[in-house]
Amino acid sequence: MRLGFAVKVLGEGGLPSHDTRRWQSGPHLRTSLTYLRDVLEYLDRHDIRMYRMATALAPYASHPELSQFHRQVEECESELAELGALARDLDIRLSTHPGQYTVLNSESDAVRAAAAAELEVQGALLDAMGLGPEAVVVLHVGGAAGGHAAAGDRFLAGFEQLSETARSRLVLENDDRVFGVCQALGVAQRAGVPLVFDIHHHRCHNPDGIDDREALQLALDSWPSGVRPKIHFSSPRLDISEKRRKVGRRVERTPVLPDIRLHADLIDPVAFEGFLRHTAKGLDFDVMLEAKGKDLALLRLREQLQSRTT
Question: What was the pLDDT predicted at 308?
């Protein structure tokens, strides 16, 4: 089982994940790929074999008004092929996960067009790197305006407009508010794409009341034969924060309880071990850890699991 983390490298003093300069400064995929090489070498040093790349690896590449950035993938064809070969040699599974503004089933034509453009860039990047079918682009179904059926229809309409490159890389994920496992799986089956199971989301939003094992099995079964499934695992934030408000010369402090949907800095090792020993017993998949502590959370979890078995 591979364990992975997303985007930011915090260890060894931290590493940049991509070129974050504003468009006026001429950022480019070529700079991001220099950073990505450093990240891959870091992953190899620490025996981490799974990584979610920054969605903005090619800055502004899907921006509708900045056409000067639209050909970055073609301009970096040789560099992408070289880094893809390095990732394969190091056996590092790569993926991307466009954020909350990439909504393929939006009621807005402009939002749908922007989402499609972003998914085309992500698919082109993975293809240019020569990565196999395990390298996927993870996406949520989106909102449910008009009901789940209408929302699913809008997603399918947007999906059908994508190129084969983009469609072949896309996988769906259950979310924590709108599309539970069964609803997301229904859309995924109609589109002919796999479902990534997020257990934290499932525990926040499980409208069908199915247990963790059944939900996990449903998602894993959606992956094609020969392609290793992946799931997401995180722990909920449990610490109490504080809201401060100045009242005259005095500062009033009010405790703020955390939203269960928020991710913790680290992964609960007892919960993760229990998940592997019971919920996931006998099943094969890779795990993307979603923790604020990024690579440090992964390394800490691995250390804690090893100490519990020795």
Answer: 77
Q: How confident is the model at residue 151 (pLDDT cuts 50, 70, 90)?
A: very high
CB 207 within 8 A of CB 180: yes
pTM of the model: 0.94
Beta bridge partners of 94: 51
The two beta strands, 50-52 and 3-6, are parallel
Query: Per-residue DSSP letters for 90-123?
Result: TT-EEEB---TT--TT-S-HHHHHHHHHHHHHHH
% helix / strand / coil in the chain, to the nearest 5?
A: 45, 15, 40
**Percentage of the chain with pLDDT > 70?**
99
CB within 8 A of 195, min separation 6: which ones? 171, 172, 173, 174, 181, 184, 185, 188, 218, 219, 222
Confidence bin at 152 (pLDDT 50/70/90): very high
Q: What are phi and psi of 118, to 5 degrees?
A: -65, -40
Q: What angle do CA 204, 105, 263 make, to 5 degrees?
A: 30
Q: What is the pLDDT of residue 310?
A: 65
Q: Which residues pair with 164 in a beta bridge?
A: none
The whole-chain average pLDDT of the chain stands at 96
